[in-house]
Design goal:
single chain; alpha+beta; BirA Bifunctional Protein, domain 2; Rossmann fold; 8-stranded mixed beta sheet; 5-stranded mixed beta sheet; binds adenosine monophosphate
């Protein structure tokens, strides 16, 4: 036999028994998108590396370590093209916003998409090279009401998906007015303790001192004594953050302020937030996260436009649901259409007629013995078998109870199934 080929490391096949949870979570995201008046947008799976380098920052993990590069075909002009698979969608959406002059539309724009993202990271539980995010972006509103609305939306998503115990962690990392002084304060503090920093933090200290705070190897006492972002906010940022907290309190969203939460990308300003299963904030990776990016569109060559968004990881949401013992709700009853004779045309016509009225049907295309057909219908999860007799008469068999009604009409079949 020929040698088999496996899926690339860090990717996963979702087999039919796993996809019920995915359909459920995607349906919750789509329904919330409708209720929160979000419009769908789609962007390419890959973009110029420069977009990510400029937008996310050269020193972000996504750009520095995890860029999944894409080359053009061999011998083509683009053979060594500086493209990369998207590690997150915000930079691409901001690019599209600028490219299509979307600033002239009545704003703020409320956009959403669900799709795969790619990071060339070391694969482990809850960390894949291809994963799916539900993404929401609101462009053109400086907040803080829209910040509260999005944080509440993310929280509601987890609750409606079936995770009751999710907490939002929030922080403010200031803006271009107050962040420089905060950066200096962090550099001064961590320089004093340079010997206790891990290699990543030591290297980044002067480039991106905020990232030192979310280094998992940072000793707790060093983290606890570090200058806090909210103590360094300018008046406008402080007012924004206080406003956000007041609104979250009024909405009853469960949240905590986390002084170490800075998010990994350079484009964030002011509000940063992440979601965790309550009680597991320390040990577990975030379920999802987001933040405000008031400088991003300008950084990418557009007019100054505020924005805020989140990316909620569906893979981790589903892992958490599985850990919580989630089971798919019973699906719609399935009808198997089988028969003793070999009139497959009639079986297919009956199947089509039932399907036209919304019923799920699985016809048996074989000429096996009726008993075998009934057995495999039950194994395939059918609740009913509709048996087409050699004389064309229909019999309806309840596969769970083993009861059978002979000489039924299609109307009676429909009534029995939906009753
Ligand atoms: P981030 O912007 O890195 O905070 O990512 C937002 C969310 O996407 C995370 O909270 C995760 O749920 C998900 N995510 C990010 N990276 C990965 C990954 N490598 N594998 C699976 N999910 C991920």
């Amino acid at each position: 036999m020929a040698k088999t080929i496996s899926a690339p490391r860090g990717t996963r096949d979702l087999l039919p028994e796993e996809t019920a949870a995915w359909s459920h979570v995607e349906a919750v995201a789509r329904d919330l998108s409708r209720r929160y008046a979000l419009e769908r947008i789609e962007i390419p799976l890959f973009e110029r590396v420069e977009l990510f380098a400029r937008g996310l920052g050269e020193s972000s993990d996504a750009v520095e370590k995890e860029m999944f590069r894409v080359a053009g075909a061999k011998g083509s002009e683009e053979e060594a093209a500086p493209w990369a698979l998207r590690p997150e969608p915000t930079a691409g959406i901001a690019r599209a916003f600028i490219e299509h002059g979307m600033h002239v539309r009545p704003g703020p724009l409320r956009l959403t998409m669900i799709g795969p993202m790619f990071r060339y990271d070391r694969p482990q539980a809850g960390r894949y090279r291809q994963f799916v995010q539900w993404d929401v972006e609101v462009i053109g509103d400086a907040g803080p009401a829209v910040d509260a609305e999005l944080i509440e939306l993310g929280h509601r998503f987890y609750a409606e998906a079936g995770l009751r115990d999710v907490v939002a962690r929030i922080n403010s990392i200031g803006d271009s007015t107050c962040r420089p002084a905060y950066r200096d304060a962090l550099i001064a503090y961590f320089s004093e303790h340079a010997g206790r920093l891990g290699p990543d933090s030591a290297r980044r200290l002067h480039v991106n001192p905020l990232r030192v705070l979310d280094d998992k190897t940072l000793p707790d006492d060093l983290a606890a004594g570090a200058p806090r972002g909210i103590d360094h906010l300018c008046d406008a940022c402080r007012e924004h953050f206080d406003g956000l907290r007041g609104l979250l309190d009024a909405l009853g969203v469960r949240y905590e302020v986390d002084h170490r939460l800075v998010r990994g990308l350079d484009y964030y300003t002011r509000t940063a937030f992440e979601y965790y299963v309550a009680g597991r904030e320390g040990q577990q990776q975030a379920l999802g996260g987001g933040g405000r990016y008031d400088g991003l569109i300008e950084l990418l060559g557009g007019r100054p436009t505020p924005g805020i968004g989140f990316g909620l990881g569906l893979d981790r949401t589903i892992l958490a649901l599985e850990e919580a013992g989630w089971t798919p709700p019973a699906g719609q009853a399935l009808v198997a259409v089988l028969g003793a004779g070999d009139d497959h045309g009639r079986r297919l016509a009956i199947a089509a007629e039932l399907r036209a009225t919304g019923i799920a049907v699985r016809p048996d295309g074989s000429t096996r013995k009726l008993g075998k057909q009934i057995e495999s219908a039950a194994k395939a999860g059918a609740a009913w078998a509709l048996i087409v007799g050699e004389d064309g008469a229909l019999a309806l068999r309840d596969l769970e109870r083993g009861e059978q009604r002979d000489s039924v009409t299609l109307g009676e079949v429909r009534a029995a199934i939906s009753g």
